[in-house]
Design goal:
The chain is of the alpha/beta class. Helices cover 34% and strands 22% of the residues. The chain has a single domain, classed as 3-Layer(aba) Sandwich (Rossmann fold), CATH 3.40.50.360. Strands 1, 2, 3, 4, 5 and 6 form a 6-stranded parallel sheet that branches. Helix 2 links the parallel strand 3 and strand 4. The termini are close together.
Length: 153
């Protein structure tokens, strides 16, 4: 059974909803066990117990939240050679992919051992507090299925 940890921060619940929907998609694939956690409730070494790590953040002032940035930095201290991972964000307006790109860049710089196995996912919200724009949630489920299907053995 492949174990997946999804670490996310959510200001208004939208990124949490995206994380939950990604996990729903993963759970449609057999032999996947996924857990959701906020970075403040995860010791970086705990990540070593999982086969895959997903990291999600809302776009916050043009990038990921401070909590997610700090979490990524801590991961760089534990050695995640060859561990697969992926990132996702929520955005509104013109911030498309901004937090995703910055998280990917930060991971490449600070956690070079973490292997990003797919392009990041950006999900549009209808305003600062949401809701998630209609038609976006199925992308989350597909993202989860895509990652989980890569883990099947």
């Amino acid at each position: 059974m492949a174990k997946v940890i999804v670490v996310y921060e959510s200001k208004y619940g939208n990124t949490k909803q995206v994380a939950e929907t990604i996990v729903e998609g993963m759970n449609e694939i057999e032999r996947i066990e996924a857990v959701l956690k906020e970075p403040k409730h995860v010791e970086p070494t705990e990540v070593l117990d999982y086969d895959v790590i997903l990291i999600g953040s809302p776009n916050h002032i043009g990038g990921p939240t401070r909590g997610i940035r700090k979490f990524i930095d801590k991961l760089g201290k534990i050695g995640l050679e060859g561990k697969p991972g992926a990132v996702f964000d929520t955005y509104m307006g013109g911030d498309f992919n901004k937090a995703v790109r910055k998280m990917e860049k930060r991971i490449n710089e600070k956690v070079p051992g973490l292997k990003l196995i797919t392009s990041g996912l950006s999900i549009k919200v209808g305003g600062t507090k949401g809701p998630i724009v209609e038609g976006e949630l199925p992308k989350c489920k597909d993202f989860g299925k895509k990652i989980a299907s890569q883990l099947e053995t």
